[in-house]
């Protein structure tokens, strides 16, 4: 018997094009039922529904009609057309980076699509318009309330004394309108339901009659003003309430004193427009990370549209933020829009000018080292030319004017953005990684005698012998900034273009001593300092993450083998051949003393050294541990450092004294060894030693690293009689910080400022 060589044909032998033709006539509800037939049908149904959403948004001849009326006014209350404002998250990109389904499992894609909401603006009809002509104009987000009220669709709500609630019937239809007329060619029902409006809700959300023309239009933005028409929350109305004047007490109508009068309100049906939040930050991750972390919290809040403006190097980090947010969100979340600010970033300007040096030789410390550094400090604070500065300032102004944000969140080191906010007099808040010491002039000149001055490397508390040198350095630092020809030239350019005041700096001045400032400090993790009323101490502001086992299972498995030392010198610090060898020598001392430890080292190589230099004998000290897997070297960490630190596998972190690194380790309760390299990083070395949660690992050799000194620091923290006390102190401080993340505290404070 011969077998038929031709393959058997079955339903799935048909190409997708045929299936699309077959399925196209089905309604959306019918297609949803077919999505469970097979994986292939699921994928086809998803594509069809996605395509229909895209197409329907562009069909201008179709309109949404809203009928909203009290049951007694069904025949007299006119319908209103609604203008389509957009569907957040929907784009023609079906897969890959930036798509709606990015980083979403196949089984969850249909759920992601079904979680989208389209937004509409009710438009007053000719019958309702005060001048008798309907208007299709949509009010801008920040327009004054009186103008918005004049164009808004409103409905009266009256409650007798015995009534606890009133109700509005809501009917929504999609209609096809004959061009050039109001004739309806077709009607499709979308929703027919009822909204109950309770007396207490009206009281809580009402604006008094005399205050209908509000001074602050931001007060209207409240999640409670969104009422759902059905339990499935498919259709909702955003309502704003204005209390109507009660009966005048002198009016000649007899009312018993115990009789409750009629409660009257006007309900305004507002556009479901999102409020814009704008983050203006430098692109260096040392400054931008706190902004990205707080932006994540706003992405989880549907009423807000997040915009991040910076130089082009930050764009990949914003893309990663969007992926992370969609991954972590338990429900639908939006994505941040990135706005590129033309021009060179701060670090690129410093590299181009030659001011940026090898990471371990930026400046010397001590009295003479600090004194010498102060003359070069203005170049780091203000690296741009006058023309570059003004071009970046103009870009910030343009972005703010384009977006009309309800709040601008500004990096305190981004001077051009601060100038833009002050010029436009927009609402803004400063958010940065720095501590109180960097921002606040302490009472009784405490910065001179109480706190170690910048670049000095002095300890805290200051010993008596260093108080006078510290005060002298503080005076010299002030003189260096006030008399700097670099800052003077830049200020002359600013003033010639109409910008007022001095160049914006970290320290508070009389011009901005009321500007809200958010910082990651807490009393438990900082020097004792005076806290002005406009400061909010949020605690560590870190990027969110999943457990290390989900973020990177391979790395999690390796970490679980032994207690781990993490070496992470931030995003900028790079290692020369010499410094790499010194760190390797220090690790050799530790690994000999503690054979049960392992090391994860993020090693960024110095571009000035040849690649071949790293391939010869540089790792001889740790060659054997590298071969047997006890030392793992990576050019870049595939997960957030805080993800590794909070895994429970890390016994110590070695870092450069950056604010973010310090706060990541503090939050995780991990002991620290600080190898400071520049400016304020020496302050964090002093904090670690004062708090008893680690040591300064290069105190004798700074700014460079000495292998023997580092080895001694490592063994002190991990293999000495002091080890247990250091570990317990680090854990106790982490517990004292509480469960609420600093990014949540910062976000809630910004929301409080927005809502007045």
Automatic annotation (TrEMBL):
The keyword Transferase applies. The lineage of its organism: Eukaryota, Fungi, Dikarya, Ascomycota, Pezizomycotina. Pfam families: EryCIII-like_C, F-box-like. Keywords: Glycosyltransferase, Transferase. The keyword Glycosyltransferase applies. It comes from Aspergillus rambellii. Coiled coil: none annotated. GO terms for molecular function: hexosyltransferase activity; UDP-glycosyltransferase activity. This is F-box domain-containing protein. Residues 8-54 form the F-box domain. InterPro entries: EryCIII-like_C, F-box-like_dom_sf, F-box_dom, UDP-glycosyltransferase, UDP_glucos_trans.
């Amino acid at each position: 018997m011969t077998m038929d060589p031709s393959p058997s044909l079955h339903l799935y032998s048909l190409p997708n094009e045929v299936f699309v033709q077959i399925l196209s006539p089905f309604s959306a509800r019918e297609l949803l039922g077919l999505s469970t037939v097979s994986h292939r049908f699921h994928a086809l149904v998803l594509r069809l529904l996605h395509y229909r959403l895209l197409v329907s948004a562009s069909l201008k001849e179709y309109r949404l009609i809203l009928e909203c009326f009290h049951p007694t006014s069904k025949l007299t209350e006119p319908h209103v057309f609604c203008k389509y404002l957009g569907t957040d998250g929907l784009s023609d990109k079906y897969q890959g980076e930036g798509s709606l389904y990015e980083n979403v499992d196949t089984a969850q894609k249909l759920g992601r699509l079904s979680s989208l909401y389209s937004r509409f603006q009710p438009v007053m009809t000719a019958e309702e318009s005060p001048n008798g002509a309907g208007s299709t104009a949509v009010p801008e987000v920040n327009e004054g309330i009186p103008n918005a009220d004049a164009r808004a669709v409103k409905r009266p709500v009256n409650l007798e004394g015995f009534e606890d609630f009133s109700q509005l019937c809501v009917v929504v239809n999609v209609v096809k309108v004959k061009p050039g007329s109001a004739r309806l060619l077709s009607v499709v029902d979308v929703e027919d339901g009822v909204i109950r409006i309770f007396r207490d809700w009206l009281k809580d959300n009402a604006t008094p009659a005399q205050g209908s023309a509000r001074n602050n239009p931001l007060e209207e933005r409240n999640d409670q003003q969104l009422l759902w028409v059905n339990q499935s929350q498919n259709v909702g109305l955003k309502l704003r309430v204005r209390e109507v004047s009660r009966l005048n007490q002198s009016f000649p109508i007899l009312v018993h004193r115990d009789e409750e009068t009629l409660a009257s309100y006007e309900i305004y049906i507002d556009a479901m427009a999102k409020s814009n939040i704008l983050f203006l930050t430098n692109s260096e991750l040392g400054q931008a990370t706190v902004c990205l972390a707080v932006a994540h919290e706003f992405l989880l809040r549907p009423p807000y549209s997040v915009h991040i403006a910076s130089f082009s190097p930050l764009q990949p980090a914003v893309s990663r933020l969007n992926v992370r947010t969609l991954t972590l969100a338990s429900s639908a979340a939006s994505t941040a829009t990135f706005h590129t600010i033309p021009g060179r970033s701060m670090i690129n300007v410093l590299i181009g000018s030659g001011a940026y040096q090898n990471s371990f030789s930026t400046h010397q410390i001590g009295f003479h080292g600090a004194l010498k550094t102060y003359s070069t400090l203005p170049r780091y604070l203000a690296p741009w030319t006058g023309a570059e500065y003004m071009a970046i300032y103009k870009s910030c102004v343009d972005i703010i004017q384009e977006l009309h944000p309800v709040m601008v969140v500004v990096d305190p080191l981004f001077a051009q953005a601060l100038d833009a906010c002050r010029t436009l007099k927009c609402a803004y808040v400063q958010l940065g990684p720095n501590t109180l010491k960097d921002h606040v002039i302490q009472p009784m000149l405490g910065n001179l005698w109480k706190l170690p001055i910048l670049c000095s490397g002095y300890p805290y508390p200051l010993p008596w012998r260093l108080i006078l040198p510290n005060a002298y350095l503080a005076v010299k630092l002030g003189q260096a900034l006030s008399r700097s020809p670099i800052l003077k030239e830049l200020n002359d350019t600013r003033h010639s273009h109409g910008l007022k005041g001095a160049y914006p700096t970290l320290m508070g001045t009389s011009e901005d001593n009321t500007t809200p400032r958010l910082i990651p400090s807490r009393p438990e993790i900082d020097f004792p300092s005076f806290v002005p009323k406009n400061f909010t101490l949020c605690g560590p502001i870190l990027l969110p993450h999943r457990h290390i086992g989900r973020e990177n299972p391979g790395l999690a498995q390796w970490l679980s083998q032994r207690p781990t030392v993490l070496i992470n010198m931030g995003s900028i610090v790079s290692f020369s051949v010499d410094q790499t060898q010194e760190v390797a020598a220090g690790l050799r001392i530790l690994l000999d003393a503690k054979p049960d430890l392992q090391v994860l080292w993020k090693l960024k190589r110095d571009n000035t050294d040849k690649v071949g230099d790293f391939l010869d004998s540089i790792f001889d000290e740790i060659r054997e541990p590298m071969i047997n897997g006890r030392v793992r070297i990576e050019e870049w960490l595939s997960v957030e450092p805080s993800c590794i630190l909070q895994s429970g596998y890390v016994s110590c972190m070695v870092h450069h004294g950056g604010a973010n690194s310090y706060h990541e380790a503090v939050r995780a309760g991990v002991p620290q060894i600080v190898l400071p390299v520049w400016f304020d990083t020496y302050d964090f070395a002093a904090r670690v030693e004062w708090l008893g949660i680690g040591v300064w690992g290069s105190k004798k050799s700074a700014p460079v690293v000495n292998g023997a000194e580092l080895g001694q620091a490592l063994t002190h923290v991990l293999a000495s009689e002091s080890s247990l006390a250091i570990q317990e102190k680090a854990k106790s401080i982490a517990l004292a910080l509480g469960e609420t993340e600093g990014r949540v505290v910062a976000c809630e404070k910004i929301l409080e400022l927005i809502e007045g």
